[in-house]
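Lecture 7 notes. Example A: sequence first, then its structure tokens.
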Amino acid sequence: MYRPSKPARLIVALLLLSLCSASLLVDNTSAKTRRAQELVETADKVSPDLRAIIQSGNGSSRVKVLVQTSSDPNLLSSLLNLVTNLGGTVLKTLTRLNVQLVDIPANAVDVLATESSVLYISGDNLVRSFGHLTTTSGAQQSRAQKGLLGSYTLDGSLIGIAIIDSGIDPNHKSFSGQLLKISANQDFTGENRTDDPYGHGTHVAAIAAGEGAPTKNKYEGIAPGAHLINLRVLDSQGVGTISGLLSSLDWVLANRLLFNIRVVNMSLGTPAINSYRNDPLCQAVRRLSDAGIVVVAAAGNNGKDGSNQKIYGAIHSPGNEPSAITVGASNSFGTDARKDDVVTTYSSRGPTRSFYTDIYGVKHYDNLIKPDLVAPGNKIIAAEAIDNLLVTNTPALETNIYKTPSSMKLMFLSGSSMSTPMVSGAAAMLLQLNPGLTPNMVKMILMYTAQPLANFNTLEQGAGQLNIAGAVTLAKMVKTDPLGLFTPALGSALLNGSAPAAQTTIASASFPWTQGLVLNHTVVTGKDLITKYQKSYGKGYLLGEGINETFSAQSFNYAMWTKGLKLATYLTVSNGTALYGGSYFAPTNLFLGDGVVMGDGVVMGDGVVMGDGVVMGDGVVMGDAAMQALSATLNGDPGPTMR
């Protein structure tokens, strides 16, 4: 098979960067206009968590806050003067995101919010991680491809995947076979190191793009040819801050062309309190998506409470952002065949319960249907960083498959943290195959070709389980312009040729594709999704734009969508067939009306809807993959509670 040498691939990558820069850019004017129109004008520009501190009697204490501002430089100088006059200090300015990190007395936040340039103020809360793949996902059977230059291996070559996590152990054999496999390292924790003393990021990076040669391809990553950008935001204890995470995203925007960063993996999060329209993490993710970067985020691991009660509404930020590909966890039970696969009990379910408060004090919940899809995330074996804290605290996480050398050790972890890099690796494969795909096209392809898992509803599995083999089949047929020189007309042919058969065979067993998309508050089905170009497939749009909503109904805007599509009126518990066949679960209008219909604590079929998006009331995301492993046996489904 034809495969260029590692140095040659890097040279080609740089050439492609110079040729394809137009495809990575976006009409910033139109994107900013839409973002400004979407921004919610709330009665309170101060986030609920900060408001609670002010009202608790601790207003004299100092807090670190994230101030989202307008881009007008004249207004910015006025803001900086006000911060100083209020006894505050600007600690950091993220120019590409229009965010200021400010240290200020809590009681002064309300005065700061009156400044005309201030859009929203939220707390700099803590962020934590959440914790046979290539065969069961269909990645391995998609490796061999034919192109204009002959046969080649589809493995993510030339694509940069940014791993925003706890660092990567550069000496592990999973990353040592390629020149500049880890092409950049940056620390945003203040610990001035980019290795992985915690152990989470190395495992995540290996799932996305670990090399298979050291293990004879048995524990190969999904896109082993991709290069990694190591952005460390979680410290040696596995904890980070929102400001550190925002700094890493700002860095990505500044360096995306230099390292051809096409995918960002975020196996971490924080409680989704603020509406995605105001949440600074969600707004940053939107900017990356507008710039042509696929952002993949973990759904979280809060599918059940301590009483073994199924929970709905525990999707974390930035997984509550509609432009992100939000990934939940499935369990493949260690087999290649997929007929027995299930959604794990601990995987966070939708809808999103982030909210804003109007001038009458009424909370309006986002109620987006999430996750977008699920991928294997249970007891995943991948690279073990040397002397990491997770294994030190829980030796049972070590597999002992390779006892020596230390740079070959592998470990178990479970959670949506492990599912997320599977999707990131899949995205890298699709972008290598068809570099002109937009983030929305990648998301559409992954959802449309997903496998519906029987006996699970849409709020648990989204479109279904990741099917890389099907996604590759579809992606290679999609017409794109890698240089971004033209925009297809609405309704024009999307594919080169007829639509492929909507099914995939893995491990000698066939299953249908979902053949639909999960968008905002509904499900869209129809063959036009892959045969005709839809306007929202372009950069600078949300995939769900153009679906009109009233208090109780939804309809298509036919200036954005073609007429051969159908909006679902209810969600189902899937029977494993296409087009969301199965039993009735909930009407889609339940998610409309700004959350008024679906109040806090309502029992929803088989579980409870959480309120305010707060799972752990302290601003810290628990549900870490490692935390689950502490209470898990090595067999079964390790979650907050055992099934």
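Example B, a different protein, same format:
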Amino acid sequence: MRRILLFLLTPFVFLAPVSRAQGDAGLAGSVRTREGSPLPHLVLTVTGPSGSRTVVTGPEGRYRAAPLSPGAYTVTLDQPGFVLEPAARADVGGGLTSLDLVVAHVPVREQVVVSATRSEAPLSTVGIAVGVLDRERIEERQAGALLPLLQELPGVAAARTGAPGTQASAFVRGGGGNAARVLIDGVPVNEPGGAFNFGTALPLELERVEVVRGAASSLYGTDALAGVIHLVTRKATEGQTPGVHAEAEGGSFAWRRAAGGTSGQRGRFDWNLGLARLQTDNQGPNSAFEQTGAALSAGAALGGRTTVRLTVRGETGQVGTPGQTAFGRPDEDASLERDAFVVGVHLRHAAGRAVHGLRAGYARIRELSLNPLDSGPFTPSWRGRTGAFEVFDFADPAGFQNDTRRLSAGYQLEAQAGRRHLVTAGIDVERETGDLGSRSDVLLQPQRTNVGLYLQDQVVLGDSVFLTAGGRLERNDSFGTRAVPRAAIAWRARGGEDALTVRASAGAGIKEPSFFESFGVSFFAQGNPDLRPERSRTFDLGVEQRLLRSRLRLEATAYHHDYRDQIAFTVVDFSTFQGSFVNVGRTRGRGLELAVDAAPAPGFRLHAAYTYVDGKVLVSTSGFDPVFAVGRGLLRRPKHQAAFSASAGTGRLQVGATLLAVGRRADSDFAGLGLDENDGYARLDARLRARLGAGLEAFVVAENLFDREYQEALGYPALGRAVRAGLRFRTGADGRP
């Protein structure tokens, strides 16, 4: 208790020097982007009769330069990716003179991220590796699913068991499919134990996607072993005229999709609402996928500097699951029903140099696997190989249910302490419950509560060094209390339009066991209540170089991730084959990430990313499966992966293409065929948009243009060439939904 009280009081100790006389003459105001996003942690230079001095923006992007002698002053900003618009000048007399500043983006913009520090921050100041897909890039890409977008970011690999709608995982820096914290509008949505199915995720009404690479449990607690994946729903831009958007498309594999919505601001209220309906037969037998989804972001100003925002996302759908059809007959009757619902409320109040935030969220994911008929056994075969045993169809007419719920709430304080410290402190409480197992048996109904306290300090040293350090105490019902730290530094070695930034970070991660691992009651897989959390230690060193007056941005990052105490199933009695779970595994992921963003001419954009992962099993999680033997590569995580995307066009016509190249990777058929590696593949996607006038545009998208045959997971063929076309109608202040 003493440690907890000390932890909570620390921010207020830092805040002691904040109070000062308010009668000094000077400048005060805020710094925001054109879209209205606040920009804390920026260094401004104020020049005038009092000479030159630097000030650092605090929460809500607010700054204060005082005392100043009366006279004319200019404010300048040396921040990669931003320019003040227009030039900032003001005459200071008695008292504080208000001067609000707006920054414009240069051709290759600086991203403002939230996930790295739990508050808005320019990416080049946080010292942490973050990949961002912004609204412009998501719209231009016109992808039919979210997963291909994630694969275009450095450090992220993915694997899907077949066509859209089927089970899919995302892997960050060699971590497992359960090693990244997944947030939707700040609400944690992972299943207890970290898993998240990306197979049904669509880019519906997304403002941006942020992927933090590196352990982030210092802020987010459990599940953030390898990083964080944050999906942010669109909200109306400041002053946006109300409008509507609608689109319809059709194409290969009986693809039918319709979507629509409305967005705008009126008075104190703003909203963005979207609905979508998708149907496709997905080429193969029993592969049809259908889904209905909705997304809402609505906000209101309650007076003064208090705002509230409600976000809701939901989906319901069903997909056929024919199994490993590359190796034998499909299962004609198996299917997966999936419903997901996420709601979040965020109340934010700014007072002086501090911002208070209250959050509450609820996430429920219900999956029901159905296999009512026994299709009989078959012997797998593949390119002259024959399986060592028959594969049986384990029918379960009642179905296997995975229904998990996560209720979360928290308080966060952001405050400027002194002139150069930005302190963030808070508390999170999460309640996890579920109903899991075969519906023909008694369902497992576990519950678990997690409480986390975190503290972080962002400080500017001199005018060019940005240091972030913090930690978290996590109390988990399954594994007790753990402390997890993180530190990062960004050094602007050269400023100006061709800025050079060097950064480094180190952090620790933890992950709780899944419900079955902790609470399972099956005779053959007994839960172990004494499991320790899985742990990670991560380090990286990177450099960012801007060239050609910020028309070109180059990024390189070397990293090393160590994953320890990984949980594995083990047989404890070979006479009865009774099993349980233990902490035995250890793996490593180290390598290099490269990224290029370029805007060589108006309307022309280039993005490229390359990831090298030297992944290896150091201590095996399985004593009998060679797939997980010591020295083996990491399952379904390619050693080499590259993505190149280009788009061009202004006015009425825009074209684009994306090439994804995935190298060979360790895998297993899990069917007795002896396959332990999956071939690499390359896929080319292309798109075209043409404006027809009066808010109407036509578009054509081709995925896997050259009809390549490949499998993201062994035994599960990916779709062949798919072409779809449609019409889109939009109205609104900026011509976008």
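Note on Example B: Confidence is low (pLDDT under 50) at residues 1-22. The CA atoms of residues 435 and 452 lie 25 Å apart.
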